[in-house]
Amino acid sequence: MSCDLRAPGWLARHPMVGVFMVIIGGLLFGAMAYQLKTNGPLIRADIPLASRLHAIAVESPPNVDETMTFGFFLGKEIVEIIGAMLVLYFLHKRYWPELAMVIVGLSGAAGVWFLLTRYFGRVRPEAQMGIVVHEPSFPSGHAAHAVLCFGLLAYLLLPKMPSLFWKWLLVVAAVLTILFIGFSRVFQGGHYLTDVLAGYGVGIAWAGLVYTVLETFVNKRKA
Predict the structure, then answer these.
(1) Quick check: 7 and 152 in contact, CB under 8 A?
(2) What is the per-residue pLDDT for 97?
(3) Confidence class for position 1, pLDDT limits 50, 70, 90
């Protein structure tokens, strides 16, 4: 088996998985957006939840705060570093489909995030700990990019795993990383819970759309 990092083409062979991701992600984001626009029960629960987590965060030892701050960097700077490394690798190898998946996936999501945050214009929680951000809060860019980056990384690495155990370990590690990034942003007051859920929805839908379309297009070109 080649050790090259290539897209396995699984989404191209099973495009309904991508369609399912778009539907599920779109429904999740749409539900959170509807809650925000109508001040639904989930939105009303955001503030007391944020207050409870802030009280816990204030009483937590310094190493907990440092761990949660690492979640901020993991969802932003580390994602950017991984994206840049993948871009350089695919440029060097001239793997154009994979290069497009990284660029369109991450950069496109940044554009979608920018438009959505400006449209909804939700103010972040008042009590932010760690790194303070003043950008609009809904949806969470950290959550969306975590799904796109670590989801793609797991997708690329999965065929290289030597056994079913390691495949499952990779998937669980990717999911836990994505969840940790989202939780860290809520715990430190950088986002409300509904911001993170909406960000996951955007990430899932965008990943399903972009990665499936690009792989399907490439497979048709090869046929």
Answers:
(1) no
(2) 86
(3) very low
Q: Measured between alpha carbons, how far is 16 from 170 in angstroms, rounded to an integer?
A: 23
Map tokens 């990943």 to a residue.
207
Q: pTM score > 0.85 for this model?
A: yes
Model pLDDT, residue 219 = 61
Interacting residues of 201 by C-beta distance below 8 A, sequence separation 6+:
24, 25, 26, 27, 28, 29, 30, 31, 32, 139
The owner of tokens 């779109």 is: 26
Distance CA 36, CA 104 (A): 28
First to last CA, the chain: 22
User: What is the residue extent of each domain of the chain?
Assistant: 12-222
Secondary structure class of 191 (helix, strand, coil): coil
Give the pLDDT score at 206: 97
| Residues 98, 15: Cα–Cα separation, whole Å | 17
Contact 173, 71 (CB under 8 A): no
Q: Look up residue 183 and give its amino acid.
A: F
